[in-house]
């Protein structure tokens, strides 16, 4: 992969911050966009997601790109982890299939992986007969 395919950083906007009543996702989105714009990075986009189901590990951040493994990281925050999130974005662009070992991930991202999902790769269409789902066998009487 040449690093020009579209890549996305997803940030949960529902995660609650450590201070009561705060939701830090929007600040993290703004900081990520500002830094990517400053760098002139036109490959990575940043999007907010209403919930990434990582509620016990706020703030959750995901990475996805077509044909690549996707990641969800938790327990991230703007003050401590912005540089590592951006570093991983640079690394992720260079990974042909998105797959990397935890030791290759920067900082806290080494130990805060909540999920790594293999890429959905195109497959040949199934023959019509094989695509039919059959009912489970009934026990003999």
SSE layout and pairing:
Elements: E1 7-12, H1 25-39, E2 44-49, E3 61-65, E4 70-73, H2 78-94, E5 113-117, H3 128-131
Parallel strand pairs: 1-2
Antiparallel strand pairs: 1-3, 3-4, 4-5
Helix pairs in contact: 1-2
Protein name: Metal-binding protein
Pfam families: DUF1636
InterPro entries: DUF1636, Thioredoxin-like_sf
Account of the protein in words:
The chain has 141 residues and is an alpha+beta fold. The chain contains three helices and five strands, in the order E-H-E-E-E-H-E-H. It has a five-stranded mixed beta sheet with strand order 2-1-3-4-5, covered by helices on one side. The radius of gyration is 19 Å and the shape is globular. It starts with 6 loop residues before the first strand and ends in a 10-residue tail after the last helix. The model has no long low-confidence stretch (mean pLDDT 87).
List keywords for this structure.
141 residues; alpha+beta; Metal-binding protein
């Amino acid at each position: 992969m040449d690093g020009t395919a579209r890549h996305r950083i997803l940030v949960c906007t529902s995660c609650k911050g450590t201070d009561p009543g705060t939701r830090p996702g929007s600040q993290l989105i703004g900081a990520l966009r500002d830094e990517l714009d400053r760098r002139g990075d036109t490959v990575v986009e940043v999007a907010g997601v209403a919930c990434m189901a990582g509620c016990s590990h706020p703030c959750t951040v995901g990475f996805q790109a077509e044909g690549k493994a996707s990641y969800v990281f938790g327990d991230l925050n703007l003050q401590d982890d912005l540089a590592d999130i951006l570093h991983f974005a640079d690394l992720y662009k260079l990974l042909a299939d998105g797959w990397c070992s935890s030791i290759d991930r920067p900082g806290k991202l080494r130990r805060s992986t909540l999920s790594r999902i293999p890429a959905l790769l195109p497959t040949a269409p199934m023959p019509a007969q094989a695509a039919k789902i059959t009912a489970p066998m009934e026990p003999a009487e």
